[in-house]
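Quick illustration, no need to memorize.
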Amino acid sequence: MNDEARARHPSIQWWEWLAWFALLGVVTWGMAAVRPRLNEAHVTLAYLLIVQGGSARGGRPLGLSLAAVAFVLFDLLFLPPFGTLTLQDPLNWIVLGAFLLTSILSAQLLYRAQGEASVARERAAEIDRLSALGAETLSVGRAEDALTAIVSVIRSSLHVDECAVFLIDSAARIAQPLADSAEPPQSDRRLVERVAAEGRNAIEQLDGVICVDASVERFLEGVGVSFGARALARSLRVRDRTVGVLRIGRAGGLTLTPAQTRVLDALSYYAALGVERVRLAAEAQRAVTLQEAHQAKDAVLASVSHDLRTPLTTIKALAHEIAQSGDDRAAIIEEEADRLNLFVAQMLDLSRIAAGTAVPDIQPNEAEDLLGAAVQQVSGRLGGRELRIEVSSDEPLLFGRFDFAQTLRAVVNLIDNAAKYSPPGESVDLSARRDGPWLVFGVADRGAGVPAIERDRIFEPFYRRSGSPDVGGTGLGLPIARGIAAAQGGRLDLDDRAGGGSVFSLRVPGIATADLQRPTELLAGERESSSR
């Protein structure tokens, strides 16, 4: 039996020992009074009952003591010659030996059964406490309150002076102490930082030395180590990722029994879930704050853009009237008003896309029709650059399901962007092709390209590429193009172009060649159902 079970075995008072030996004496006196009518089996059974009863009540020491006294009384009073320890019949030694051995075995087995029952009861109590703790921590409103409850249970269960939980950020640094924990002193911080960096448990010796080797596992197993430990720091992990550190300590030295280690293991798991819950709650709060900020920004943009349209119309009309009187400056005013009006229109488009109110009119359309319309719109805005058109020859016709006007706007934005960042004299390539289920409109340039670190940021409103020349524009063309693609169930991708430059690929759902071979009236009916 291990020391843990011995420590849990119920103690017995001295007067109870006297009571059991008095009972042994009374039973012996009673059997002695009728000794001629008894045989060895009767005596053996009577004494065994007393030994087992004493073992059940007082444990192994009382049971073995009763067995030894009963052995002597059996020999003296019930085996001839009576009154001596010698035996007339040598075979009676077998009876005495069997009685003594049976008494010892029964006392040992009862003691072991009691110890195992005590261990089982305590483990059941541990499970009940942990279940109650789990229910309590899951039901609290704030994640920090759950961690506070866990820390309180660890302190009371392990009888430690110090218990703190620390959150770890993505760079394995201590972000902040949690659960009403104060900022740790420098010596304790070194211990916590060591565990955060290596993801392994560590102990701090009484002399301040930090250990992360096998001695930590021996310490947790209760085997003992050759030095005193002042504090233990455990790595809190969720899905194989270190999310925090739990630190416990006792000023006079820290020791853990195997039972306490089991409790600490379970509570550490709850603490890890609590830390993860704190992190997720913080991320959710940040997401809500960002969403509210975006909504407020979109509302302001929509309101300002709408309010600017009326004065811009007035300015443009006055500039046109002044231009008729021969003032050349009026043309500049009218041109700048057009630029500002375009900017306002783009902000309105962006706000509608962000709010989800820009509902596309998706119908079957031909790719070549859209390319032709795009060429007409940008014909005077390329600064002398050539616009080369390429349509895939793998299929006779290229059809897709998309909003013609909105997709045209997106493609024109991409062409304008390519013209701004292409060197003078370089062409801009516009293409259309099938790629699996997609109809892809590609716009390629020979500019400097986009660094990998900026691949996502160039689709943010008002963002300009680092180190790029001042090419004008509002920084809204690419975000609007991506929003239009997403609203139609497509996407806008950016890739490097062989030989230098960038390729923007606008993908919309395509129509398979087999569908194009159906009767015309069937395709017309599909257009009608899509418009509804």
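The chain has 15 helices and 13 strands.
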